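Here's a chain:
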Amino acid sequence: MTKASLINNDKNNVDLLLEPIKDGETISALTIKELIGASDFKDLYVNENNIKNAIAELNDVLKPLQEKQVGREIRYQVLERIDATINISIESDEMEASAEITTAQGGQHLTAKAILTAAQEAGVKKGFSKEHLVKLAQLAAKEAPNNQVVMQIASGKVAINGKDAVIKPLVESAQTRILKPKKREDGSVDMRDLGDIICVKVGDPLAKKIPLTQGKQGYTVTATPLEPEPGNDIELISGEGTCISAKNENILVSEKVGLPKLIDNGMEVDEIYKIKDVTVATGNINFTGSVMIEGDVTEGMTVIASGDITVGGFVESATLEAGGDITISGGIIGRKYDVEKTEVTDVAMSVNISAKGSIFAKYGQYAQINCGQDVRIENQLLHSILNINGRLWLGKEETADGKLIGGYIKAGTSVQAGMVGATAGSNTIINFEHKILKFKEQIHDVEEKLKATSESTTELKNAVNKLKKLPKDKAKPELLTKVVASYQVHAKEMGIILEEKASLETNLQDYMCSVYILANEKLYHGVEMIVGDFHDRSRREYGPSKMRYYERKIHIEALVHSE
């Protein structure tokens, strides 16, 4: 029988050696592969063509031989030791680079250093992970021959944009202080202890500007720098009673003794008038600055301040007017009034709270509230009349979980509470008319302007037509040129006015679709929402719901709270 063996050659590969003996038995390609599979060379690359060539030549040699006659040896290289190969790919944004290794077939494995070198030669210059290089080399060495192993070996670094400049208050405002009442030693809260730290002295630091940062430069794996966007700058504003420190341009200090108040990008200091209670004994208060009342404002009293008003106790059937914010630690209590059976224009509540800024109170009932910004009532608001430009929020600072029962509310943006309305079906009317009326006024003004311009344009157009129809001997070309030019100016102005009108109408619709009533727990029947000429009311009890306007109708939608 022909002998077949595998032997190393001088190229460190393996040859197939055939010693032909004619005896009737044949050797096939399958026989050779079985020989390779049983040898120490099974992981090497198999040259299929050379195996076929060797078998073909063997048959040619055996053909003329006599039985048992030995022919010449046949030798072909059929197995090759192939080293591992590597392909480096760089993402289009150059923020990642990966290596794909085709594992060795009896040849040399790639070391971590070799992978690094290949990546560098491919253009990867930065962001290598030593851990990944070592891990990839180890995985490829363990993987079966002629398989692919892929791993990310380098990553770029995204530029970190700079931080915006911010203004950090260094003192508490009166409202901040009252919303965090002082705890007693036994753990209870003293709602009337406002503390002395609200008042500042001359030279006290009030606010600090933390300058913008430039950010940190990033890079791609090809070492292209990625420049960060610097933060936005803001100016530290020195309000009334404050100035920029002579020692540090980023520090705002007080110029007088008074009450610190937050303003946009800065602070101001009001003169402060501090009193225990406002009663018949003290008389009414009318003060240029801020007023701090440690206790209550009793029935029939009036407090007017150009700045903030801070009340540690209750306001009962009294009047408060502030040029800034009003903060009431207790409640706003008016005398009971049958609001539902009286026209809103005829209602005169016994307690009136009015602020150009925001208003906060623990609770309110039978109150008239006018506010230039937002109103927050922590617990509940009953049968009151509100006229506010901003938002009405019933509940804690972070969660609208309070109750709104009855009353007539004109709001600017939204009304949010835990429960809106009551099981008794008390009428709760919420009207978003402030901005709508302003938009309508603006649209009316634009329409008047459009009407006037249209009339002038028509007159000029008629004049142009008349001048063009004049016979040549009476033609007035200079006058025609002037009239045409004037007509063109008016026509262009009409186009601008029409665009202005379209923009206002779009903004009006956008606003109408942006306002809403939110009931995080219950929406009872009898809650009416008015948005311009559109209104509707709830006719049954709902779970968590949102009332809003769209597509010329008021809709009530169920809220889905995510866990």
